[in-house]
Automatic annotation (TrEMBL), chains A, B:
This is Homeobox domain-containing protein. The lineage of its organism: Eukaryota, Viridiplantae, Streptophyta, Embryophyta, Tracheophyta. The chain holds residues 148 to 324 of 450 of the full protein. Residues 79-143 bind DNA. It is found in: Nucleus. Residues 77-142 form the Homeobox domain.
Length: 177, 177
DNA sequence: ACCTTATGAATGAATG
DNA sequence: CATTCATTCATAAGGT
């Protein structure tokens, strides 16, 4: 129900319009903007902290005029670049291959799988490779986890990442105002 | 000649053909980066001004010799850091050495580099060695991957991932001063 | 709307 | 050196 694969191919005449990028290049730009955005937020935060503590130079307040007119992430998204997400059929195939195979697929195998899955949606060899890596790692971890006889010690939570996310979200929220 | 209806905002098939943007889209991205960059610089300037004029020590953050708790990533890591993470300056040096050298550095060379990088943060020879190993391996893999047929564009932007971190850390380093 | 979870991707380290 | 593993970062999807 997500993307309608009905989108017509982009006119190949784009060369004549000048601006052509590889998706890697585009992704790089996107991330760069995102990084800048984060930096700005944090700078603003810091500045605020200083100001409230000092009540100092109010007229120098926050970068007059420039109110971060564009949301980089959203803009980037509107252009369609996101991380790969396996389609239903792709996932099915991946799972079945995973079950029947022993270790990580060889390079050749990866190529084949990628080929096959390509019929069901956009995919690259790297995607496949990563998928198997993650699948294996997470299966293993789950294994270990369930080996802890149901008794106590559910204190496994890692709060480091959580904290980070919250901070980041806060920064972004601040920015949007 | 060609229909201008098709070239408008068409980037749906980027996966297959590489990322194609309209001039407008490209301009927008460029402008955004520029804006953010400018804002960052302004904020940093402002911060510097405040600091030099006041030379105060906020009880919440700015302990001399310590990093501002601004970067959630760094903060999260400092809590229970497991593995080594190169600082911005270290990364910069590593990259430059990598560019100018041919193969894996000799033991002696590794020692020297470690010595040098030690000035910029905690590091061991093993870290350096691993870094070079990984860097080379991944550069190679990337090389292969980029040998995808068709749809190449001429502009060569390079070295994807490391760069973001570099930018980000550079900006933060700026702040620390 | 916010928060959590699942998961794709990046990368330091280990292994052969 | 080539592969693989382990951990973590970042994001898409789903729940409340």
């Amino acid at each position: 129900s997500k993307s309608s694969a009905t989108d017509k191919a982009c006119s190949r005449d784009y060369r004549k319009y000048g601006c052509v990028m590889t998706d890697e290049q585009f992704e790089m730009l996107r991330r760069q903007i995102s990084v800048y955005s984060t930096i700005c937020n944090q700078l603003v935060e810091m500045h605020k902290a200083l100001m409230t503590q000092q009540a100092f130079i109010p007229n120098m307040a926050l970068v007059p005029g420039q109110q971060l007119p564009l949301d980089p992430v959203l803009v980037a998204r509107s252009n369609g670049r996101q991380r790969w997400t396996p389609s239903q059929s792709q996932l099915q195939i991946l799972e079945s291959v995973f079950e029947t195979s022993v270790g990580t697929p060889s390079k050749q195998k990866i190529k084949e799988i990628t080929m096959e899955l390509g019929k069901h949606g956009p995919i690259s060899e790297t995607n496949v490779y990563n998928w198997f890596q993650n699948r294996k790692a997470r299966a293993k971890r789950k294994q270990q986890h369930s080996m802890k006889d149901g008794e106590h010690c559910e204190m496994e939570m890692e709060e480091g990442t959580e904290m980070f996310r919250k901070d980041k979200r806060a920064a972004f929220d601040m920015l949007q105002k």
